Amino acid sequence: MPSDGLLRRVDAVQVPVPSLAEGLAFYSEALGHRLLWRNDAIGQAGLALPDGDSELVLTTTRPYEPNWLVDDVPTALTHITTHGGTVLTGPLDIPVGRAAVVQDPFGNTLTLVDLSKGLYTTTPDGTVTHVQPPTP
Question: Among 11, 19, 22, 37, which residue's beta carbon has the most beta carbons within 10 A?
Fold first, then answer.
């Protein structure tokens, strides 16, 4: 575990929307958040937040939830379960890495993600073309 904490930062806050078009009309066009990426295959679009590197992720398939960035999901699961937490789901492969859902000893649900496969590469309109592997 990193000496400064297991949870690195809020990677994203997922917000459910009925469709990406409707979500983008409100959050991007009306509220002014810049589109970073759009992946229609998984029903998600990432928008920039102006004061940091966390993203606002519009989703047609997931509930409202924060996603906590960790260095490595399997290592985080081991650490959390060793200290009284429970794995609810995962680990699962996602396009940019791995994810899991855990419950802390107090009943709070935490969604964990790592970016072990890299970051999205996009066209100028935000369409995802591939995942750029991380640089060593």
Answer: 11
Looking at domain 9-132, its CATH class is: alpha beta
Nearest to 23 by CA among 41, 35, 9, 5: 35
User: Is residue 39 scored above 60 in pLDDT?
Assistant: yes
- Model's pTM, two decimal places? 0.76
Q: What is the β-pairing status of strands 55-59 and 97-103?
A: unpaired
Angstrom distance (rounded) from CA 33 to CA 56? 9
- Domain spans in the chain, listed from the N-terminal domain onward: 9-132
Helix (H, G, I), strand (E, B) or coil at 33: coil
> Residue 71 has which token pair?
């260095």
